[in-house]
Amino acid sequence: MRGIARPWLDDPSALLTCEEIDEAIFSRERDVVLEEAAERHTS
Questions:
Q1: Phi–psi pair at 12, nearest 5 degrees
Q2: CA distances (Å), 5 to each of 2, 13, 16, 30, in order?
Q3: pTM for the full predicted model
Q4: Contact 6, 17 (CB under 8 A)
């Protein structure tokens, strides 16, 4: 199984699957979009 180690965990066997990586990227992008929208709305 291929994966990418989570650098914030000490356990090197903790791997992310491709689906988890995609989910993390998507949720991070969504958070950024929501933050930018909130900033535009409040300014």
A1: -70, -15
A2: 10, 7, 6, 23
A3: 0.46
A4: no
